[in-house]
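Hi all, long-time lurker, first post. I run a small reading group and we've been trying to get comfortable going from sequence to structure in the token notation. Rather than ask abstract questions, I figured I'd post a concrete chain and ask someone more experienced to write out its structure so we can walk through it together at our next meeting. Sequence below, copied exactly:
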Amino acid sequence: MSHVAGDITKKAVLGCIDSLTNPPIKYPGVRNSLCNILRMSNQGRLFDNSPQVFIIPIYRLGAAREWAGQGYDAIIFCASEDVAQRIGMTNVTLGNAMKATLSEINTAAALASTLCEFLAYSVLEKEESEVDKYQDAGEREAHHNFRLQGEIPVPKNLSALPQKPVFKISFSAHNPENLRNGHPAPDPMLITFKSCNNWYRKYAGFRMVADAEPEDFDDLSEEGRQNLQAYMEWQAAKESTQQHNNLMNKFGLEGGTHSIEFAT
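-- Answer (accepted) --
Happy to help. Here is the structure in token form:
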């Protein structure tokens, strides 16, 4: 990859600062996207890299797929009490914590179950050797057993509330008024897929999805470079459209256009 292409890639992922403006303007990258960030202690270690935390939106599949920045609630549970403490859950007293209802738990479970099944089927459509590339030694054996047995654990509906409370959290809609005080909502499909991958690493013993691209941009795969190029093109088109809309909708008129009639 050329030096120029490498710089563009870094800017797309990490963001950059235009120091020629006064004051300097900071442009966020993919990693800074509100849809991809959790305000959670030890997110990288306990949610992104290992199966310790599970966050499932209380969303039906259709609504989750059509999400456009709205706020929503989600259930959250951890692999152990120690993990709950490390991500800051125990900072909230039991009396002040929001507790999920049976209906909310089952709505989240239905979403997670559907995406878990999708992940499982997507693995079966690939060659075993291809999936083994991103497994540790013990995970390869679990992956092989899954293919032989054709069974996989998925979240199921509950007939009654569990003895221990299931906590829920609230994410705020993506507008300036809400974001000042609340946690910006991550994409519900993205966070569910991440949690489902954690679920399988915890309860099935192997990874359905490979880790993210390496931080060293010279080691990016060809597919990774193509994805970044597609993102940059999409972002440029989006910014161009936004600038056009801002110009056309200067007076805040509905529809984004403004017609002027000249007197004759």
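A couple of things your group might point at:
Strands lie at 16-18, 25-27, 53-57, 72-78, 167-171.
The first strand starts at residue 16 and ends at 18.
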